[in-house]
Amino acid sequence: MKIQNEQPVLTVRNLKTHFFTEDGVVKAVDGVDFDLYPGEILGLVGESGCGKSVTSLSILRLVGVPGKIVDGEIWFEGKNLLSLTENEMVAMRGNRMSMIFQQPQTSLNPVYKIGDQVAEVFTIHKNLPKKEAWDKAVELLHLVGIPDAEKKAHAFPHEMSGGQAQRVMIAMALALNPTLLIADEPTTALDVTIQAQIMDLILELREKMGTSVILITHDLGVIAEMADRVAVMYAGQIVEQATVQELFARPHHPYTKGLMGSIPVLGKVTRRLEVIPGSVPNLINLPQGCRFSPRCKARIEQSLEICLHENPMLVETGSNHLCRCWLYDGQMKSAGDLMEANHE
Amino acid sequence: MNEPLKTHTARMELIQVRNLKKYYTIRGGFFQRIKSCGKAVDNVSFDIFDGETLGLVGESGCGKTTIGRTMLRLIEPTGGEVYYEGNNIFNLSGGALQAIRRNMQIIFQDPFSSLDPRMPVGESIMEGMRINRIGTRKEQFDMMIDVLRKVGLEDYHARRYPHEFSGGQRQRIGIARALALRPRFIICDEPVSALDVSIQSQVLNILKDLQEEYGLTYLFIAHNLSVVEHISDRVAVMYLGKIVELAHRAELFYNPLHPYTQALLSAIPIPDPAVKRKRITLKGDVPSLFNPPKGCRFHPRCPFAKDQCLVEAPPYREVQKGHFAACWLNE
Amino acid sequence: MLGYIARRLVQMVGVVLISAVATYALLNLAPGGPMTGLRQQQQGRNRITAADIARIRAYYELDLYLPVRFSRWLIGHPRGPITVGGTEWFANTPIGCRQPIEKNVRNEKGKIETKVVGCNENVYLRDLEGRKVSRGILLGDFGASWKLLRDRPVSDLIMSRLPKTIELIGLSTLLSLLLGIPLGIYSAVKQYSRFDYIFTSLAFLGSAMPTFFFGILMILVFSILPKSAGLPYLPPGSASAVREYVVPLIGTIQPDTIADRLMHLVLPVITLTIVSVASWSRFIRASMLEVLRQDYVRTARAKGLKEKLVILKHALRNALIPFVTIVVFSIPSLFGGAIITETIFSWPGMGRLYFLALGDSDFPVAMAILFITAVLTVIATLIRDLVYTLIDPRIRYS
Amino acid sequence: MAAQVDSISLLNDYPKEESPWRLVFRRFRKHKLAMISLGVMLVLFLITLFARQIAPFEVDEITVGNYFLKPGSVQEATGRVHLLGTDNLGRDLFSRLIYAGRISLTVALLSVVISSIIGVTIGAISGYYGGWVDNLLMRIVEFFLTIPSLPILLIISAMLLKNQDAIPIPQFLLELAGKLMLLEVREARQAVLIILVLAGLGWLTSAQLMRGMVLSLRNQTFVEAAKAMGAGGAWIILRHMIPNAMAPIIVDASLNMANYVVAEAALSFLGFGIQEPIPTWGNMLSATQAYMLDMPWLPLIPGLPIFLCSLAFNYIGDGLRDALDPRLKL
Questions:
Q1: What is the pTM (predicted TM-score) of this model?
Q2: In this protein, which residues make up the domain named ABC transporter (chain A) (predicted)?
Q3: C156-391 has which CATH code?
Q4: From CA B123, how far away is CA B128, in angstroms rounded?
Q5: pLDDT tens column, C299-355
């Protein structure tokens, strides 16, 4: 466990990224706060459309039209990224902070050799001459475990498997030893045995370089095996945040609990899986009050009125444990205890 | 919470697959000769018992989906036989084939392309009965409403079009459509892998409920071992066009005999940080079907490969009662 | 790769042959042609004798059966008796008919038609000796023109027109590329901006505008109206003037000087350029927008590339891949597509030549142009496929 | 407890069901220029439909001495107005324009209908059954598509116009076409030949489009589902392929309308299409071009409607394409 009284490398406050579409304003990210500490892996978990990918793109300021960051602050290396000029931001990307994506093969440019694509990072940020940059690229490819890197550097992306392409992406992202790496579903498109390889690689490089990582995934298994701390997102907001052990041992939020109950776990066969009824709300017409309230079993069982009218705050509900739920909010503490008691 | 293992008092084989083969060829050169041949399904045999769920797992491109499609003759096989209640469906044609096909249905992975966007979903569900001329219009309609309710949808949804439904709802409609023909056997081809986690469990539960209610037999194809373990009675593991291991679920998970199965099991991330395991990480990538390794196809990645494995493919046989495997380590 | 090219070359020859057969049959099977007028004169006051007719038929080779005629046109054979090892082959096989027997018959609808029912005098291989014959179109001899330049080689006609067409289309293609690509890119990059809005509207108008109407408008606006208003104007047609002319505010222009030829080039070049800029830049814009959505463009940005590099290095290269097809295929239309523009501006190029040849039933000329177009088309297809392997590493032929 | 929660119906309910076509129309309406174009085209079609009632003069009515009257001129003797003036023979341009519109639009419309039917049929068969038939058909189609089409169009129509009886056309078809275009049977033959030429080359793109659609639909799992339920080729083509391929075919048809209006005009303009005295916009343009030195407005009279139609059908096609874009959620 990392020591949390260190200065965070990244601080996100009240981040709001909205998409202005013909049908209305999609509030993809709507008030997200979190800190990332040196050397830790923060898992950002949630279902599709919960805003986890948009959050990461917002940090790099890569949200395209019709999306726009409408509010918030992102503090990184002593600067608020949202007030930097585009040129300052360009110097930041790929250098101090970098990103890898879900589809490694389509994320590489099909018409350039992979060696050139990795070397490009050195030529643009360090002004290295071509030859030197290429040599460095080959070195990096070797580091991320590409067999026969000298030769493979001449290969084009379509000649590589998904796993190898993801290794190239990682090489590219870690080339300049950035402070922050954002990994957006880095293993989702890969097979299980390849996923294991990539997970090992990221963990190994994190140890070696001390990079802080934001790991975005929908797979609780990946989170459990890799992350130090976890933030659970639902409908554009963080609903729960805790250390990984704490979260899996004592999930608070009804959504987190539902999520955990709904996945089959290897070696623990149950007759039935738990179910979160309904589906993710439309981000244009969000439900009144708590965004999870229409699907919340706890609300129905406890017949809580407030959930339907007011969205709860993300409050501390335990040591290093934050939760956005009326059951755990100050006034409602008793109800939360009641729930906890019922659950045990 | 662990439920007792299902016991089969009368283990009748509903489906028998024998030496199933499906080869794909690439042609090239001046005279368009066959240049290479990919054995997507290479001499695969297994049985599915009445009322059970047989899980079929493997990584992408291992041929698991091709097995499902060839069994229904959606793809023409290169060789082998598939028996449904003792009738080889590869020998049938016309009416006899159609009569058997009604009993064998399929649910697909992609909830978006599996429904005709220009057809109200009620029509889609009734389509099978129309094709097979089952019942009157009224009976077809009643049946449609019945299965719609069975999968947790409402009557009025029948008039709606697919674009008005979410992924999970569409998957329910896909199930309803398969169910409407009252089949005995359903191939579930990755039915939950395109769905969100919280929706997966809804669909898995429905599949289990329906199996109980109608005594359905499933072939459950998936790449997610946790899901397969959850739903299957027996599990078959595929690698590069061949089944490498097949056993009862518990047997397979607690006593895997093939190194590939062992690696696969250890590679799956467990959503519990308290569990610490020693992971067997396989080296390298899955080889191409068009250029499979000689001998045992798994040997280049196998941590236990012996000299023999490089030369000769191991036989696929019953190592222990009901536990099949293809590995020289067990010989 | 060499094997691939060899296979393609064999295919290409096949395709060219098939298209040659098809066009030859189309032009030669249909009744009419050069004899139509003569027949009427014959019926009129009987000025032309049957012998004259036979002579003219022989001159146009119309007395030969179609396969023989085609073979002579294609490869210049047969030219006379075929002797192998002392024996003459096919000596008694008729290869044509000098004087067909015609008869008026009543067809099923009750109309009277003239039909060929037999032959008075056959043509044999030995009769071919001494007849003029081309070396065959496959060897680049297009034969002699029938009407436009009577008895002169078609190649002369084509060679005199070719430079004019290349001048016109080459210039406008170059301009269209220079204008169309940057405009399309800029518009895509600034999607939804005011520039993009105005540009796409104009490009839409441009690509919906029929060339012939546009050409006429250009003549009206830049030639006729200013001339009658006493303003500087551009010549409305042809490639150069015959005598010196005065343009207000510009001065006297001598015929066939550079200034004169430039003046004549402006209108047709602008017309062609605007039409292709409109469609090409629309294409580039669409393909650029498609590419800008791709994952690797996002990767390039995440790497810290400046937007200019992202566009010019990572996006453009990919966006140009489909564009190559369009540009390469504008090569054959050098000869075909310019028909309308050349006609409107009386430009002495291949397109206008084709138009005239069709109007005058000068089949050898029309055939030659169609044949050249077909050859260029298959070559363009090959070039396109080879260029693809150069710019797109995903494509490899074997 | 689980079952109880399962039964809470929390489906995203929509107020009313909306068929895909209705949805398309709702989106189409957002495209303002396309809506305006649709309106303009409806008006044009109506005008030509009532050509006899609207046109003030007969199509070939010649008043001696009234050559080259300016637009808006009044015949002194009768007081009738030549709205757009008269041509070199003294025929009323406004009336001729309306009759010409009827012919030009009918030729384009019939060509689109015929070429779409041929294209859809051939494309569907080619795509669904594949094999050597598909291979052969598509090689032919590709070849014709790569050759510039205008020279081919010109040569075929030149040949056909010289030998108008080369292709037998049933009498009743000629009569029908004559009625549609207000032509005598003898004249209708020319128009029908032009339709055949245009459609004969025009089906190529529709066939390619349809084949592509069928190939992509063949991989859609709903087609596999139908097969799994025992559906045969005909069922799948009629119930699944054609309804789903309709959208791009309609877009293609509306863009083709624009192409055919222009192509017919181009043929007639070059003198290889429908011949004088039958009026079409194309041959009117070619006739007026000769006199534009003195009367510069003349070419605008037949030219503008050609441009207008081309533009309108392009906008309609554009609007339809936007409305039918598969990238949008449907």
A1: 0.86
A2: 12-260
A3: 1.10.3720.10
A4: 9
A5: 999 999 999 999 999 999 999 988 988 888 777 766 666 889 999 999 999 999 999
